[in-house]
Amino acid sequence: MAAAVDYARGLAHGARLGLAGYSFGALMVLEYVARGGRADAVALVGVGLRDQNGEPRRPPDVPRGTFIVAAENDQFGTAEELRAALPHARITVVTGVDHYFVGKRDVVGALVADELARNLPVPSHLP
């Protein structure tokens, strides 16, 4: 992840950088940040508290205010379980779905895009 972020920063010539991740990708973003990695905005989806076998899994430390989209009925950690485990995160719940967000993926995409846009405003040369 660090190499990808460094590469993106090189392409962006000083622009702000946002990271987004879903499921395992969300955990990778959290690992990167926990190890001192830096991003100007983070939006995560489907952060699991259990592995595919149902065994508990403690996610890496979640920085205060991290934005997480949670599925109400996520089999890897419900929205309520996430709120209890990650009290400093900003958790938005998508109702009526499990970990795969079937039927509401557009909602998830809009939530992530809105969060990144809020934190990564595009400078304009227009008055």
Question: Quick gist of this model?
Answer:
This protein is α/β, with parallel strands linked by helices.
Give the CATH class: Alpha Beta
Globally, the shape reads: globular
For the biggest β-sheet, the strand order reads: 1-2-3-4
Q: Which radius of gyration do the C-alpha atoms yield?
A: 15 Å
Q: State the fourth-level CATH superfamily.
A: Alpha/Beta hydrolase fold, catalytic domain
Q: Give the integer mean of the pLDDT values.
A: 93
By DSSP, the count of extended strands is 4
Low-confidence stretches: none
Oligomer: single chain
Task: Give me the CATH fold name.
Answer: Rossmann fold
For the terminal residues, how far apart are their CA atoms? 37 Å
CATH arch. level architecture: 3-Layer(aba) Sandwich
Q: In this structure, how is the largest beta sheet organized?
A: 4 strands, parallel
Q: Helix/strand-derived class? A: alpha/beta
* Helix fraction bin: 25-40%
Strand content: 15-25%
Number of H- or I-type helical stretches: 4
Which H/E pattern describes the elements?
HEHEEHEH
Please, could you describe this protein's structure?
With 127 residues, this protein is of the alpha/beta class. It has a single domain, classed as 3-Layer(aba) Sandwich (Rossmann fold). The protein is 35% helix and 16% strand. It is built from four helices and four strands. Strands 1-2-3-4 form a four-stranded parallel β-sheet, with helices on both faces. The termini are far apart. The relative contact order is 0.15.
Outline the fold blueprint:
Blueprint: H1 2-12, E1 18-22, H2 24-34, E2 41-45, E3 67-71, H3 79-85, E4 90-94, H4 105-119
